[in-house]
Every structure is written in structure tokens, then in C-alpha cells.
Amino acid sequence: MKKTFTLLGLLIGSLYVGYAQEDSSNQEYPFNDIENYLYSPNQERKKSKEYFTEVKSLADSGNPEALYYLGMLQKDGIGTKQNFKKSIKSFKKSYELGNLEAAYSVGYYYLKGFGDVPQDYTKAYRWFKKSESSMGKHWMAKMQFLGLGRESNKTKAIKMLQSNDIHNSKVLLEQYKNEQPPRAISHKFSEFINGSSIENLHGLSNLHVVPDTQILEGTWEGEYFELDWSKKRALRALPIQLSFKRGGGVNESLHTEITIADSLATDTGTYSSGSLSFAKLTVPIKKQFTDYSNFTHLMTDIRALELRLCPYNGENLLIGRLNAFHPVWKERANPILLVLKKKINISEDAHTAFNEQASDFIRVYPNPVPEYCLINFELPHEANVKVEITNYYNTAPYHNVLFDGYREKGNHTLEIHKLPSQQGTYTLSISYNGKRENKLIIKE
User: Fold this and answer.
1) pLDDT tens-digit series, residues 227-272
2) How does DSSP assign 315-345, residue by residue?
3) Among 33, 51, 359, 388, which is least packed by CB within 10 angstroms?
């Protein structure tokens, strides 16, 4: 009898322990506090650590909701080091234990390719669908409309939004139904972009010429291309203007003014080996489509620009890869590609000099020439133009092609930096439509 009681007691004890363990994994926890804290501007190190420790303990016991919030804390580096690989692992485990919301987060990771998680549209769409969530359906409609990882089907995307009863989808639906034609790429860049690999340009592949600050100084105008997350195509193009003014120091400083569409920002960056870094260059960039009625511009922190020169059509284009971050979302911006052409600044002195040489086909300012000069000429018809420089005396043979490319009918001004270092008299030649015009210049 005593033995039977003992066995019964052990059985009851083991059931109680099992119940207690199950209860601890599903105990109530103020996850709403965690949710609010994730987006609070007043996060403190001590409090972050406390939240992480508590959530980690619950997650280790198999609580699916705790695993979800553990993934969020790991994603943003709150109370722990930021770790995207651990974060997506926590999300996937949370989903396996029944939390469908975590599937949406996994899809979002694959959509944008955070950290060391490979970008994959197919997996993103699949995980959004698994989530059975309104936001998952919202993003599936966006992918369908924009053609991300699949053929664009705008009719299907609109139907998906119509059947999705959340505010985000209602706001987006009206924009999709009344979509405006995208802004056309500037004529002077369209041929270049259409003949190039967007992905290679963004990766600066085979672009090895690093511009020095002398070449950068001045104003550059061109296109701001917002790419999709696979970096294979441009979602839209915005006009951009970059103005640089040289400073000094071991690592040279460049005062930078940037205008993107209707937004302007300035900061002084540090320039070294083709990389221009900023302490705080924040610009509100107009969104292509918005999920919120009054959220038309997205604050964007531009942290750095990687710049290279690309010879094209006889000139140098400036190719830029922009490293940017959206503080409101706590994540990096879309891949951004810049393609710009230098705006020739013709001073009053230059205008005066060109007017004084009005009877000449080739007009030069200044002459004698220091480090660089402006060459002005007018074409009666469109033509392939070749500008060359040779030494006037044959004591030390010198020849260089300064420009070789197509130009439309009309007046043109070129800014030339590829001048000989040796002082002396040189012949400047312009060839077009079988004709050749010459002018003597003096190199100081």
C-alpha cells in the first residue's frame, strides 16, 4: 500500500511539473509594452537589456510570441547586438510554434535582403502568403503591382487591395487606381542607362577612376534612380543636383548641397579615395506611393556616397552609389544609383572672353591656360566632334584627345582638365563633319 501511494505521488508530481513548465511558456507577459518600446525614441540601455533578458527567457521556454519579439529585438539591436541571422531564426521558430505574424516578418526579410539574409522575391511572396495576415496580403499586392519577382499584374494587385480591409491598403488602392505615368529619364542619360546593366553600375563594376576634389568641385546635374531590392531595375527616377565646394585637411572636406526633386539638404563631408562620408545629411524624399495619407515624404539619412568617373560619349559621367538609412523605419533605404553630368559654370569673365573671340570658331577661356580651361564652339549641324591638343613646336612631341563624342546643333562649352603639364604653345583642334578648326593656346 505504501509503495502504491509513493508511485501515485510521483505521477502526480511529474504531471504538476509538466503543467508548471507549460504554464511558464504561456504565462501572460506585457508584450504590448515591448511593442511600444520598439518604436520609442527614448530607449535606454538598462531598460533594453531588461526587456531582452525577460523575452529571451520566455522564448527559450518555447513561447511563440516571445520568440517573435526576440526576433524584433535582435533585428534592431535592442538589449543585444544586432544580428539578422539570429533574428530570422527566431521568427521562423515562432512561426513553427503557431505565430503567423512571424511569417510576415520572415517575408519582409527576404523582400529586402537584410544583413546576411539573401534577398529573394519568391521566398518573400511565399512567406507573406503563409502569414495569412492583412499586411502580408498588402505586400503581395505591392509586389504584384510593381512586378517584383513576377510579371506585373496591376489589375490583380488592385483586386487584392480591394479585398484587404486595412487602412494602408485603402490609401494605396486610390494611388494605384489613379497611377500617373512615371517621370521620363532625361534624354541625355536615357541612352546610357538603357545600354547599361543597372546592377553593374550600382556595384561600380569596372569603374576604377576615382575623381579628385578638383574635378568634383562645382555643380553636377542628373538622375536619382531608386532601384528595386534586387538591384536589377529602376523603380523610378528623380532629378538630382549635387554641388561641391572644396575645403581642406588631410582627408579633404567637401561642402555638399544636394537637391532631390523638391527637397534640399546641406552638410560638409569627408572625402577619401572616392568615398564621401557625412555626419548628418538628412533629406525628405518624396515617396512614389504611400501607405498613409499624410506620409508623402520619407526622411532619409544619407551616410555616404561612393563616386566614380565613367567615360561616355567623349565626356565623364559621375556615377554614385548612395548609402542611406530611414530612421523612422530603422532600416536601410532602397539601393540608390546616381548618374550625373557636370554643369559648366560660365562666369562673366568667360562670357566676355568668348564675345571677344566671336569671329573664331574655337573660343577659349582663360588663355594662357592654367590647370583647366573652357572651350566654346558652335555647330551648324549635329556632328561627331573630336577635340585634340598637340604641341606647336616639335621639340617634345605631345598629343592628346580631349573629347570625342556626339554633339547636337548649337552652342557648346566643354570644361577641360586633361591638359599637358609642360608649359608652352599648343594647337587646339576641333574636327567635325569632315572639317578641322585650329587655335593656338599657351599653357602656363
Assistant:
1) 999 999 999 999 999 999 998 666 689 999 999 999 999 999 999 9
2) EEEEEEEEEEEETTTTEEPPPEEEEEEEEP-
3) 359
Name the phi and psi angles at 404, rounded to 5. -150, 100
Report the alpha-carbon distance of residue 222 to residue 317 in Å, rounded.
9
Looking at residue 85, the DSSP 8-state letter turns out to be H
Are the CB atoms for 405 and 427 separated by under 8 Å? no
The tens digit of pLDDT for each residue in 41-61 reads: 899 999 999 999 999 999 999
- State in Å, rounded, how far the first CA of the chain is from the last one: 116
CA-closest candidate to residue 209, choices 276, 275, 307, 308 = 308
Among residues 258, 176, 178, the alpha carbon closest in space to that of 221 is found at 258
Task: Report the percent of the chain where pLDDT is more than 90.
Answer: 77
Distance from CA of residue 315 to its chain's centroid? 24
Alpha-carbon distances, residue 201 vs 208, 220, 227, 236 (angstroms): 12, 18, 11, 16
At 120, phi and psi to the nearest 5?
-155, 105
Cα 241 to Cα 344: distance, rounded to the nearest angstrom: 13
Which pairs with CB-CB distance under 8 Å and at least 24 residues apart come from 383-386? 383/407, 383/432, 383/433, 384/432, 385/314, 385/412, 385/430, 385/431, 385/432, 386/314, 386/430, 386/431, 386/432
- Percent residues over pLDDT 70 in the chain: 92
**How many contiguous H segments (helices) and E segments (strands) does the chain have?**
14, 17
Q: How does residue 296 score in pLDDT terms, banded at 50, 70 and 90? A: very high
In the numeric block, which cell numbers belong to residue 323? 548609402
Nearest by Cα to 334 from 228, 182, 224: 228
**Tens digit of each residue's pLDDT (9 = 90 or more) over 306-322:** 999 998 877 789 999 99
* Cross-strand partners of 310: 317
CA dihedral 307, 311, 313, 314 (to 10 degrees): 120
What type of residue sits at position 208? H
pTM exceeds 0.70: yes
Contact 196, 231 (CB under 8 A): no
Residue 252 confidence (pLDDT): 87
Question: Residue ranges of the alpha helices (H) in 26-83?
Answer: 31-38, 45-60, 64-76
* Short-list 25, 264, 150, CA closest to 141: 150
Q: How far apart are CA 47 and CA 43, in angstroms?
A: 7
Identity of the amino acid at 344: I
Query: Are 99 and 64 in contact, with CB atoms under 8 Å apart?
Result: yes
